[in-house]
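Folding Task

Wanted — backbone structure
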Amino acid sequence: MPTDWSALARRLQDGLGLAVPPIAITFGASAPAGVPAFAEPMPPPKDDGRTGRVSAGCVFWMKSVDRTFSTAAEDHANCSVGSVTHGFQTLADVAHNEDVAALLECNWVSEAAIPAIPVVTERPGAVTYGPLADTPGDPDVALLRVTGRQLMVLHDAFPNLRIEGKPQCHIVAIAKEQGEMAASVGCQLSRVRTGMPNGEMTCAIPAAMIAEVADRIEATAIADNAVARYASEDMKRFA
């Protein structure tokens, strides 16, 4: 029986109280039939040749909240970091790019740390983004934008949840390649480029885990609601 992604998206959104619906990220050899390409114009290239349809691939997370579209390698190419984590380029391809040099020069990341960053291992022909509820096929990853409280619920449900730092986009590679759910506290590079509010974080869930995540957060909510009622009653003595 085909997976009801719309129902699972609704359970995730309702169970966590998400302000932004979950999005689906799907890697493939080509774009799914009938899915339009992301077609915003590219700006003039930098001296190192970099340009793209958005400033970084994580911007597609924001653009796909209410529409589904496909992207190609060149659409992501302004951000060397995201191009590597998503499998479009290798470290050797981007080593001399201006943005990589800028990150190293200000000590935002060390050269020694770069090879350990998780990446998608097989170069995709296309990456499709859109609301999980409307995904045209089985996705690879669901991405959630979460608050501190929502991350608390996810961690309660999955005590071994990986909490990652910069770069934010590598949690997509962790979910796809390693089959693990991973949350990110975010990174300044992504926050500036996406405009993501400072109070938001992200969580990437392998598609195979989404039903289990929905089950566990619903069970966690029952316990949290019971604790909230107790704490509320107990606090009345301090009014």
The CA atoms of residues 1 and 138 lie 12 Å apart. The mean pLDDT is 96. The chain has one domain: 5-238.
